[in-house]
Structure formats: structure tokens, C-alpha cells
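ok trying this again, last paste got cut off
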Amino acid sequence: MARASRLLAASLAAAAALAVVLLLSSHQGPAAGGGEEAGRLVISYGDWGPLTPFAFYPRGPGYVAASLVFDTLVWKDERGLVPWLAESWESLDGGRVWVFHLRRGVRWSDGEPLTAGDVVFTFEYMSRHGWHWGGVNFSRIESIEAPDPYTVVFRLKGPDPFFAEDVAATVFIIPRHVWEGVGDPYTYRGPGATVGSGPYVVESYEPGRGYVLKANPYWWGPRQLYGTLVLAAPGGITEPRASAEALVSGEADAAAFMGKAWRLVRLVEERVEGVRVEKGPMYWVAFLGFNLDRWPTSSPVFRRAVAYALNLTELVLRAVGSLEAAVPGAPGYVPPYSWFYSPRLPRSFTYDPVEAGRLLEGLGLRDVDGDGCRELPNGTAWRPLLVAPRQLEQEALVVGEMLRRVGVCVRVKTVASFKQLDSLVKGGGFDMVVSGHGAAGNSVKALSWVFTRIAPAWSSGEYRRLAAALAGAASRQEALEAAYAIEELAAGELPRIALYYPYIYLVERPGVEARFFFTWGGIDGGVPLPWNKMALLREEPG
């Protein structure tokens, strides 16, 4: 979406321009929540932009950090949906009407009351301005009403059996009294930009250094475990070495690691006595994407040849280091252990470099000068550009080596971060890309947007039709059949090739009181990070 791209660029530019600590909000109120006496926790986290509801960088860590400040109507624990701002809800008229009953006495972090009017305003405001996170389709909401200050009624244009988990557990409710006068929410950094209802408030944000959060004195739920929560940068899931160093030195209390960083996890275990390690599903896929606007990468035949050329078990062993840390990619794109992986698809790719060569020959891609590299049909030298973030450089190098075995001699270029990669890919200056994203294998509805919102986008008309059918499914079974069809279409056209699905590791130093966990289906629609805000409370909200 052009507007979304412009707004995202604006928000990133604004974040980059910040050169000093930003005191984004000042909160005064009764000492109802945690205080300094409640202690301090440091998580190695990384920098994911300002924590306003429209400025956090739209990848999983950005959303999860913002979720500490902003609340949704419902939330999730390790078992499923739980009440949050709404203490109860029900679905009526076959899933066309959803009614949420709000908690009484909830206040914003500036002391103002939170009511059903704020919920109505949130959805109307985001419908007008868009939202840079997730795949929420606001146009499917026909109307929103607040018959009283504690009841919200959503009437949808069609039934949606997943509304509670895909919408109510995703959209941050924002205060009307702050945002109703804001014309451009993506660049707004004024007073109240970080006023939320979550357990923590933003005390400071320093680009490149991270965040200092304080316990929200107006927090409506159980007392926070910590008065101060530091999300430190550098570090986090994309900078595992910095995280490991911080854990070993004691500068950080907790960190999360992707599967390919499992050696660093073992190193921390060796050097920090009593460390706690948990392994969970990451709902993340490392993939090989293609420029679908440039031949020959736009050809499904070429992409099938590439799939035959890749030995994904070898790739996992060389790039990740162990089959205990990741599962090789599958044709259906979502992990083969997913509850909605199509039973009509094989659970692994076939490695056949001979067939890869035959398909490439059929496209006219031949090595005419005997240098081991194929040329274009007109004899022009061809060295396609394969781009990747630094974190996936080894994957890109292994892919490049395997492609060279069948005569596709790529140039590998790495950039410093996923943010830079996203920008490069959206600009079209590439042939193939090694990248990755979450929301893979946990939320069936994610298949309705994951191929379009995450670059490079797939513009197949058939995919759009099936995505619309999935988004508008009247029942879970109908959604499941649409998901199967999307997976089977993707397995045939291969707009992306799943390389592997890593696990995720949670590592805590001894003495950490919080007991972080892996959320059912991931936070929101599939963020696998263990930093669920429920772990920062002394008990679950009633």
C-alpha cells in the first residue's frame, strides 16, 4: 500500500533524526502500580523505534515492546485467549456481531478514564488513517457502537470466527483525548503520544540505546513485578552476540535467541551458573524470495529449478548448525508441524540438481562460454543479485553456493539490518533475497496477508482471490480449506521458498523473578518472543 509505505518511511526518518534521549511522556499519579522498590529488570532487546502506537517499527519486537505500554481488548497467555481490557465477550449472529464488556475503573496512564468511547474512536481513527501493523482489515467492520460506557458492539460485513484472536487481541486501544486532534499519527511525537493503559509507561527512549520503562501508576491490573524495565540496545533477537555478552557480563538479565544462535545459548549456559533456558516454537520462516517483476525470477519454472537446486537439510546444518535448532523448509511455506499445513502437500522439498539443470536449460539459460555460469538466452552475461541482512549472511552464501552448482552464479550483497533490507527490496534493486518473518504456522488468517504485506509482494490474482476467501471465511473449516488452497498455490508458483523454521530460546540469569513463557500461537498473530507482559505481573488479571 503506497500510503503505508510513505507513512512507514516517515516514521523511520523521524526515528533516525532523534539524536538525544527523548522524554516522550511524563506521568504523575498515585503509587498504585509498581515503584522503584519493586526492582529493575534488563532485557537485551534492541531498538525498534519510538513506542507510540503508530511509530514502533512494524516487526515483532516493535509490537511486543509497544504492548507493554498499550493494551488490547483481549490478550493471550500460554493456553489461549484471556480477558484484558474486556472482562468478557460474546459472538452473535453466526460471528457477524461481537460484543465486548469492558472492565470498570480502567484509566489511561495520564489518569483519564478509559471508556467504550475510546474503543470506538480507536477503530474509526485507524480505519481513516490505516495502521502499519499486522493484517487487520478495518473495512470488514460495518459499524461500531458503544451503547454504554462499558460495552462495545462490533457489527461486521460478514461472519468472522477469528475476530477475537485476530482483531481484538491485536489492535492497541488509544486515548481519544490525545489522538482526536492529531492529523498525521505516524509523525506525531507530541504530548501524550505514549499515553496508554498498559502496565508500563515510557520514561525515556534513546535511539541505539533502547528504552527505560516505569511501572504505570494508574495500571488497572495486578501489581507489576518491576518498577523499572529496561529494553536495552544493542542486542535482542537480531543481535545475538550482543545479547550473549550482556548475559555473561550481567548487564542483561534475560534475552531471546533464534535457533541459529544456539551455540551462543550453550556458551551462556557454560559461563553463567544456574541460567534458565527454555526452547519454544518460533513461528518464523527464513525464506528465499524473488523479484517477481524481472525475468527470469518472475518465471515459476525458474523458481522450481531453484527449489530443486537447494538441499535444505544441508543448508540447516551449515547455516544453523543443528537440526535440533531448526526444521528444513516445506513446500506449503508454513511449518509442516503447523495445525493447518495442507495434508495434500509433501512435508519436504525434493533435492534434484539434475532436474534443476533441465528446467534452466528449457528457459534458455545456458553456459555458452564454459565458465560454469549460465548466460541469458541472448548470450548476455548474467550474475543475479542475491541480497540478505547481515544476520542471514551465511544462509545467503550457502544458497549462492548451491545455485552455482547448477550454473546460476549469484552476487551476494549483505546489508546491516532487516530494516535496510526491507527498504532495498521495496525499491526493486535485487533479483533474489534471503529474509524472514514471523506469523508462520500459528495463525491461519496470516496466510491472507503474509505474501503481500511482507516484501517482496506476490500479486497473483488467484492468491488475492483465495486470500479474500480466507479473510471472509464464515467458519473455521472454511478458513482451513482456503488456507490449504493458498499453500498449494504457493507450492506450485513458489513466490518464496521456505528455507527453514527456527526454534527460539529464552535465556534468563538466576534470580529473575519473572517467568516468561511462549504465548499460545505467539503474541498477537504470531510474534514468538517470550516477553508476554503477563509474566511481569504478580498474578494474572481476574
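PB: full thing came through this time. Confidence is low (pLDDT under 50) at residues 1-37.
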